[in-house]
Amino acid sequence: MNPEAGEFLSMLTPDEVEALHAAGRPRRWERGASLMSEGDTSDWVLVLTEGRVKVSSHTSSGTEVVLAVRGPGGLIGEMSCIDGSPRSATVTALEPVAGVVISDFAAFLQAHGRVAVLLLRMVTERLRDSDRKRIEYGAYDTTGRVATRLLELADRYGEETGGGVRVALPLSQDELAGWTGASREAVSKALRSLRDRGLIETGRRRVVIHDVEGLRKRAR
Length: 220
Description:
Blueprint: H1 14-23, E1 25-29, E2 34-36, E3 45-50, E4 53-58, E5 64-70, E6 75-76, H2 78-83, E7 90-93, E8 97-102, H3 105-111, H4 113-139, H5 142-157, E9 158-161, E10 164-167, H6 173-180, H7 184-196, E11 200-203, E12 206-209, H8 212-219
Antiparallel strand pairs: 1-8, 2-7, 3-6, 3-8, 4-5, 4-7, 9-10, 10-12, 11-12
Helix pairs in contact: 5-6, 5-7, 5-8, 6-7
C-alpha cells in the first residue's frame, strides 16, 4: 500500500525509504492488537506500511481519548525516541497492520540529516494540529466537532461512490466519541442530527457523506 499524503514515509526519497527499511525489521499485527502501551519505557519506533491504527490515552476516570488515527507511511513512537520518556499513548490496530520496527532510530537520524529535519517538521505539524483541536473543543458544539472529524476522515480515507463519499475507516461510535471529546450519547445525537439534515448516512462502522459542502458549513 502506498504511503498516505502527509505521512512520514511520503516525505522521504526512494533511497531514504530503502535505508529506513534496511535499518529495521518487518512485523505484523492483527486487528485489535496493542502495538504500544501508554507508560511503557521502550524507545523503538514503527513505520506503518499497511493498515491503520488509533493513538489514544485514558483519563483518570478510565475514559478513552483518541488523539489521532495513523495510516500507511505513518511514524509511530517518535516522541519516546526523542526524549527518552515513557510512552504517552497507546497504539491499537483498527485493522490488520504491518510495519517496520526500528530499534535505533536515533542512529538512523544521525546518519540521515535531511530525514531528521523532516521529522522536526512533522512533529511541529502534529503540535499545531493538537492546538487546533483544543480550540475546536472550546469553540464548537459536539455536532460541529463530529462534522469536522468526519470531514477529516473523508479527506484522508474517503472513497467516491455514486451517492457521495464513503468513509471506509472502521471507527466505532465509541472511538469517534473519544476523538471528538464527547460522550457516546452526544455523538449519537450529533450523527442523528446530521442524518436528519440529509448530510450523511451511517451504518455499522461506516459513514457515507452525501453533502460534503453542507457538512463543511455545519462544521463551521
